[in-house]
Amino acid sequence: MEKYVIAFIVGGFICAAVQVLMEKTKLMPGRIMVLLVCAGAVLGAVGLYQPFTDWAGAGATVPLLGFGNVLWKGIKEAVDNDGALGLFKGGFTAGAVGCSAALIFGYLCSLICNPKMKK
User: Which runs of consecutive H residues, i.e. helices, occur in 1-119?
Assistant: First the structure.
């Protein structure tokens, strides 16, 4: 039960911090998303993201920070195995499952919920 509470609080804090960035700065949402992905990759590269993930669980892996870290891990592993070619294929390999799942479940939800376009 304790892990669920920590994950909820950490994920909520990350989302609240992003909301503050959106409200209090002139940064566009797309730039904030890129900032989060890059921050996750940098934190993974310097070795800070894995201990954070071990402590926070899904609260740290689900937001875009976690996606940046997944890309970093994939690139690092691919470069170790394939050399410079890994720079180009590592991120795609590591992120493919998450992106595919998001697309598939998003499509299934659209079939169930019958979404409508905003006017």
Answer: 2-24, 29-45, 49-56, 58-61, 64-82, 86-113
Q: Does 118 map to a domain?
A: no
Give Cα separations from 67 to 1, 39, 91, 117 (angstroms).
Answer: 25, 10, 10, 28
* pTM of the entire predicted model: 0.76
**Residue 119 falls within a domain, yes or no?**
no
**How far apart are alpha carbons 111 and 7 in whole angstroms?**
30
Task: State how many domains the chain has.
Answer: 1
Count of other CB atoms within 10 angstroms of residue 62: 17
- pLDDT by residue (tens digit) across 15-32? 999 999 999 999 888 899
Task: List Cβ neighbours of 17 (8 Å cut-off, separation of 6 or more).
Answer: none
